[in-house]
Amino acid sequence: MSNKRTFSYTVPYILWLVLFVVAPVVLLIVQSFGNIYGHFTLDNYATYFSSGTYLRMTFNSVFFAFIVTVITLLISYPMAYIMSRLKNAQFWLLLVILPTWVNLLLKAYAFIGLFSKTGTVNNFLSFIGIGPHQIMFTDTSFMIVAAYIEIPFMIMPIFNSLVELDRSLINAARDLGATPWQTLTKVIIPMSMSGVKAGIQAVFIPTLSLFMITRLIGGNRVITLGTAIEEHFLVTQNWGMGSTIGVILIIAMAATMFFTRDRKKKGGRRRG
Amino acid sequence: MDNKPKKWSYIYLVFVFILMYAPIFYLIFYSFNKGDYMNGFDGFSLRHYQDMFADTRLMEILVNTFIVALLSSVLATLIGTFGALGIYNTKHRTTKNLLLSLNNVLMVSPDVIVGASFLIFFTMIGMSLGFGSVVLSHIAFSIPIVVLMVLPRLNEMNPALIDAARDLGASNYQVLSRVVLPYAWPGILAGFFMAITYSLDDFAVTFFVTGNGFSTLSVEIYSRARQGIDLSINALSALMFLLSLLLVIVYYFISNYSVKSSKKKRGGAAGMVVHQ
């Protein structure tokens, strides 16, 4: 195909790249240097770094995302490991994927019913004699729901790395006298690190930016970077500050990807 | 592996699956409740389904949501497929890598960033928020997944096919329509389905660019959920679950068909990830 021809049918795609990929990011960065009157200023960054509120909120957001990532990792690794050794592994993987196709808002909504004061979880807690408790609108409820939503995204990459793992290496380890525990810690886990890293990326970054869960379950408080951005853009209309937090979130994202980088990284939509 | 999975591992597997599915089935279960709350089942009734279908606002939003999903995924598939062809035909290595990285920017960016930056963009060019801005945003965030679904198919294609078609006198258009597009078809179809599900599932980006007058299902569920429990949402979730099940099955068959010919059989399930 000649160059001229190639150019003509890719025009919409190139337009998309310019208008919807490059321009919005540039505009976001420009906006972060503007005050509410649109003048250039470094005030937003100065406010961000000097006010304890923003820094505390950022720290909390990172802390919550960290806890959620650890919880999902602890639940998902054994799960992925067991699944990878089953005969119909692809079928089980499909069962893991199916809940991700259910609308996120519906899943969050289910927890409103489960966690409410007279809800199923509190009924159960009362039944075994340790309830009822206030579960809704707490940090714990936010972390439980976030972990629930993110589990499939942790299982999938770990599962893929475990399925790809060369079985003869495990047999070799056994032949050379390794105990099952040694085989696990010295062979299987190190060889599946690429999946673990991909899973961490897939969970940590979206958890930093979740805002609907904090609004619905976490009790309408600004506890993540995502909620802060939403608050500034749609509630207080301070786009400059919102963009500044957006830039901070992009930096946090880049840092996470840098620390968990892997040579055979696979693409996937990471939304949150 | 010499030793079979032990009993406890099956128990763990079942336990995690119960955790993953319990909230979804809990929602569906209470959609049949006679009462108005998600605690205490008062008896079987279909009245919340009646309420849902009688709710004209909700039905209107449902129709809107599907129009946005179909329109944006058709356009995203068109633009993305030709984009993938463009990347495939780019011979210069650095340009190709640059295009691929730019393609993935929207996929790795958190939704709030995409939503906020699109909001700035639409405001800057003076576009009013509503149906148009929502469709444009959905097209924009669906294009990269179409490219990622089509490009591997193109790379798999034997270049000799194109040369042969040329030698036999095919024009550029004929090469494209008779050789390249039919070969890439499973990838194009998979990309189209992913685009539909991205659009149906999206909340955050839509929430930023939707303005006041226009609403999609996710945004509506969000604003209703903030008011508290409404069992017609449960009825809706039951229908949505069936729809997702259907889409998953369709997608599974498409992608299994598309990997049938390829050497590495990675299973169709691996690519069908929707991250909200």
TrEMBL record, chain A:
Its main location: membrane. Residues 58-260 form the ABC transmembrane type-1 domain. CDD domains: TM_PBP2. It is a multi-pass membrane protein. GO terms for cellular component: plasma membrane. It is found in: Cell membrane. The keyword Ligase does not apply. The chain crosses the membrane at residues 12-37, 57-79, 91-115, 135-159, 198-218, 238-260. It holds the Pfam family BPD_transp_1. It comes from the Bacteria. SUPFAM superfamilies: MetI-like. GO terms for biological process: transmembrane transport. The keyword Transmembrane helix applies. InterPro entries: MetI-like, MetI-like_sf. Keywords: Cell membrane, Membrane, Transmembrane, Transmembrane helix, Transport. Belongs to the binding-protein-dependent transport system permease family. CysTW subfamily. This is PotB protein.
